[in-house]
Amino acid sequence: MTSAEWTPERIAALIALWNEELSTSEIGRRLGITKNAVIGKVHRLGLPKRRPSAKDDEDTADVADVVKLEALTSEMCSWPVGNPGDKAFHFCGEQVVPGKPYCSKHCAVAYIRTGRDRGQTSVA
């Protein structure tokens, strides 16, 4: 992918593709940029947010046994899943590692072992 040089023509193409309700990934592919570049420019241009589609509602309905904040306990993994603004946002909910707020899978992501923790000595 190349960096986005936002010429008036490229901005017009972005707006047209956005109005066609294509995904940010697809818009990025067509413009030869990343979806994050698309999201950033859409935000800076102040383009209207999109309405949730029927597919989004179906995806939310398919999520079974999700753990919402109200149901979260100290024995449940509190790793957030999804975007807090989405209806499907929830927490992992798996059994936590004793003394940690996360399950073993999310502890592996959250905690980085240093050289000292691995038994290695650093050279000064």
Describe the model.
With 124 residues, the chain is mainly alpha-helical. The protein folds into two domains: 8-45; 58-110, no CATH class. It contains five helices and two strands. Helix 2 (24-31) crosses helix 3. InterPro entries: GcrA. It comes from Defluviicoccus vanus. Pfam families: GcrA. This is Global cell cycle regulator GcrA-like protein.
Summarize this, please?
By secondary structure, the chain is mainly alpha-helical. It is built from five helices and two strands; from the N terminus they run H-H-H-H-E-E-H.
What's the number of structural domains? 2
Sheet bearing the most strands, described? 2 strands, antiparallel
Span from first to last CA?
40 Å
Compute the average pLDDT. 80
Helix content: 25-40%
Give the helix tally: 5
Instruction: Give unreliable regions as ranges.
Output: 54-63
Shape: elongated
| Count of extended strands | 2
Largest sheet, spatial ordering of strands: 1-2
Structural class: mainly alpha
**What percentage of amino acids are in beta strands?**
under 5%
Protein name: Global cell cycle regulator GcrA-like protein
InterPro entries: GcrA
Organism: Defluviicoccus vanus
Descriptors:
single chain; 124 residues; mainly alpha; two-stranded antiparallel ribbon; 5 helices; 2 strands
Topology at a glance:
Elements: H1 8-19, H2 24-31, H3 35-45, H4 54-62, E1 80-81, E2 90-91, H5 104-110
Helix pairs in contact: 2-3
